[in-house]
Amino acid sequence: MPWKRPTLDTPFHIDWEWWRAHESNYRFYLYEQLCDVCRERFAMDEDTQAVDWIDPDTAEVTQNADAWLICLMKHCADDPNFISSELPLAAAVFRVFLSNGNKPLTPRQLHDRLPWRDARTILRVIGGRKIHYGIRPVAG
Question: What pTM did the predictor assign?
Answer without folding.
Answer: 0.83
